[in-house]
Specification:
Shape: elongated
Strand content: 5-15%
Amino acid sequence: MKRVVHLVLVLIALLCALAPRPAAAHGRSLSYSSWKLSSDGALVRVRIPRLELTRLALDPVLEPHKQPALIRLLAESVLLSSRGQPCAPSAEPLPVAAPDGWVVYEWTLKCADPGAPVVSSTLLLDVAPSHLHFARVEMPDGSVREAVLSEAQASWSLGELGATASTPDASGTGLLGYLVLGIEHIATGYDHIVFVLALLLLAASLREVAGLVTGFTIGHSVTLALAVLGVVRPDPAAVEALIAFSIALVAAENSWLLGGRPRAVPAVVVVGLAALAAASLAGTGAVATSTLLGLALFSWCHFGLLDRTSRPAQLRAAVAFAFGLVHGFGFAGILAEMELPTDRLVTALFGFNAGVEVGQIAVVALIWPLVHSLARAHDGRWYGRVAELGSAAICGLGLFLFVTRTFR
């Protein structure tokens, strides 16, 4: 009977996910600008994900030149000033060629009293107070600086042109700033937090927790570095879909283990992925057919290996490492889009990765004591029920995200 209950929970989660309502879900709100400073002004180019336009009640599909409200917003929100005087645009922002999923605008600004530029951005802060704007500035001497602008610090003073940056703020975001950014990325990345929660729900000891966290950390650190250094640049849409799949699979695995390892669960996973692969073959979705078939094979082999071991901790740690590789590409999205110069990459990469680790450890430190206490209370009677329902809920969320990110 218990096996049937677990299977029903997983099937309900699957049915809910396969019939999603239209979603406008967002990750962390981000935008980017690149500035080429001259002796009397600057050329600025701003990049915004199309999905961000829905925050402004704008049509993300409409062509950029037909978005006068966005053009006005850019001119009013992304600013350059010098010696306290605003630099005036020579013309309104114009759309230029953009990668899929983005809108890009470019315009020129002229300063009446040039020499001490200040870059500022309040873009999207009215509708997304946690919005981050990444500004990359090429100085007249060819050197490059970058900074992260936010509600807390919306302006960036670059000091006098021709002079060496005399303050940390003038040189851009430093190690501490990227450390904080990494922590915030974990704190606001609910999909990463939910994945860690799914891993911890069945962890039997602190040693097992350490194995899971270590595997996940090594995996995402490797791909974070590879992506930021430009060695590997996977499709962001596919990465986001695979992150969602990792959540669903680990949660389904939890339910499968708790339910006595019924054969129907692996079959449902594999058949579902095969159906998505068939849809992809017909030209639908953001994930390649070969990737979906690979996930089906991976899932079948993973459940098969789990079924042959009485102590799945080591195998689960290996899976945490494998999915850590996928999550690392998700972490890398922010830094990779900044196109940092080589001399700034080490600071940004180390600081951001350290922040991700600090945030992850904080999440584990909050969740694990609760899970462990629940497992020990009343001989674990409540723990089993919480783990069952929690895994089913997480599986439903993961499947919902996977389907919507695959077919958005």
